[in-house]
Amino acid sequence: MKDRTGKEDLDKNHSSDQSYLALSIGTPRSRHSLIMQLLKCSFIVIVILALTGSFWWTISISTSSRGRIYHGYRRLQEQLVSDLWDIGEISVGSSRTKELEFCSQESENYVPCFNVSDNIALGYSNGDEYDRHCIHGFRQNCLVVPPVNYKIPLRWPTGRDVTWVANVKITAEEVLSSGSFTKRMMMLDDEQISFRSASLMFDGVEDYSHQIAEMIGLRNESNLIQAGVRTILDIGCGYGSFGAHLFSNQLLTMCIANYEASGSQVQLTLERGIPAMIGSFTSKQLPYPSLSFDMLHCARCGIDWDQKDGLLLIEVDRVLKPGGYFVWTSPLTNPQGFLRNKNNKKRWNFVRDFAENLCWELLSQQDETVVWKKNSKKSCYSSRKPGSGLSLCSKGQDVESPYYRPLQGCIGGTQSRRWIPIEERTNWPSRANLNKKELAVYGIHPEDFAEDTENWKTAVSNYWSLLSPVIFSDHPKRPGDEDPSPPYNMVRNVLDMNAHFGGFNSALLEKGKSVWVMNVVPTIGTNYLPMILDRGFVGVLHDWCEAFPTYPRTYDMVHAEGLLSLESGQKRRCSTLDIFTEIDRILRPEGWVIIRDTAPLIESTRTLTTRLKWEARIIEIESNSDERLLICQKPFFKKQSS
């Protein structure tokens, strides 16, 4: 039975094979279809094998190169950067998307949210037209081009004293015009603006600074550090000469001034490498916490302090630390002018009386300069004369870190745990290293702070290890330039988009880098800005779905750690392309971008850099396999707009 069954099966199979063969031979169309299917399958297998081999080849190169990233051998670093660049190009391949167009040449100084003509058309007046008005959802997604004759700024500190005329929008008339006396401390020729004022025909900022120190009771401005002064808010700063001079004394000056379409104080101050941002004393509170600065300075700054019923002076008091100083230089304060102008005397009397109601002590008055000292003790407020009209803000009103709120008519900052007189704070540079008691004010454990500090020291060393061979080998040199000796001052103006504790800033200074950092705390994150300012740094609150209050081409480096993760965790408010377009606007040609975030976010963001025409590299972090570095450089494009 078994043999019989096997024979029957064999007969059936033989019959089937004959039928199939006959069918195949008998139908040419079926034979052609079969051949095509076989060819397609073969092609797919070949492609899969090629891609798999390319993938493993890429991984093997990346893995073998990774261990050499953090070694100090310059030749190996140069080869590594070249390899990673090639790998990045391969990984992007056909996924390149359309590059953004260049903006028109009229947009070379474009600053969103500060369009005076549009604000006037919308009905703003009485100074409000110069204030910040952002229109949500409106984005100019094009690349802002530099002026026709733009040149890379000179390295610090040379660039502090000499800038290129073509890099900023300014006329000879604006250079020579009156206004802040620091505006007059400059000379203009065909190509350069010089701020070296050795000639007797110019006012001396050194003598002026010396006078202020003496009025406070100090020998000279170098003793301001010992008096508790480290950070200064310079209102209407001219072109930054006051801050440029004080920088040599380890004093950090932040310039703020109104938006100006031409002859901008902020633009030229940043071009010199001095901290500055657009800010307006008009109708809104500044984006700084209460009790932020050790001194506020106004030298012919154009602010009418007697206007708006004293609201502007209340805002000065809010951002001034207890025991801090307010310095005002104006013809209005000159007693000799009172005989000729009774109105000036009336205005001066209002400011003097209002300052007394704020519990400020008038320390000294010389010529056109007046120095007040803010009270150090809260008990002064209860001992004021009855009916002074100025009340303390309630807890609901006393917001520690307002974000462009309307000006308040009450005295702020009195509810804060940070009410510590400047003379009781640790002097700079020890101030940057907060102790256990000081950290408790911000709710931070000393272990977390110490760990953050060490992590940033390592990160900054690695950043510079990676960038050094690129800057000094691939970086296009200017004629006659040689590699500068340490500290490498190709970078001066740095913006940290998500500053956390300010550890990046601290590590840069500890490494001896001659930089200053704008520490930005996103409004959607945890607010550590009060701590950053108390450490002796400068910074500001900001919403990165809005334009940053600065002019194009003002920063040499933009850094962001964890910002993409922070933004991706929010309800979709704006696109990553919007944020990156804004980075491109404020970044100087040949400037650097360092993004540190999770591997998936970095990989997806890498494709955006091609749209911005940036050169980009993805680098693995040896100590953390879950994160990546995206290092980019913005090319220097000449005039490209039509």
From TrEMBL:
GO terms for molecular function: methyltransferase activity. Gene3D superfamilies: Vaccinia Virus protein VP39 (3.40.50.150). Keywords: Glycoprotein, Membrane, Methyltransferase, Signal-anchor, Transferase, Transmembrane, Transmembrane helix. It is a single-pass membrane protein; Single-pass type II membrane protein. It is found in: Endomembrane system; Membrane. Pfam families: Methyltransf_29. GO terms for cellular component: cytoplasm; endomembrane system; membrane. Its EC number is 2.1.1.-. InterPro entries: Put_SAM_MeTrfase, SAM-dependent_MTases_sf. It is an enzyme of class 2 (transferase). The keyword Secreted does not apply. SUPFAM superfamilies: S-adenosyl-L-methionine-dependent methyltransferases. The chain crosses the membrane at residues 38-59. One of its GO terms (biological process) is methylation. Belongs to the methyltransferase superfamily. This is Methyltransferase. It comes from Acer negundo.
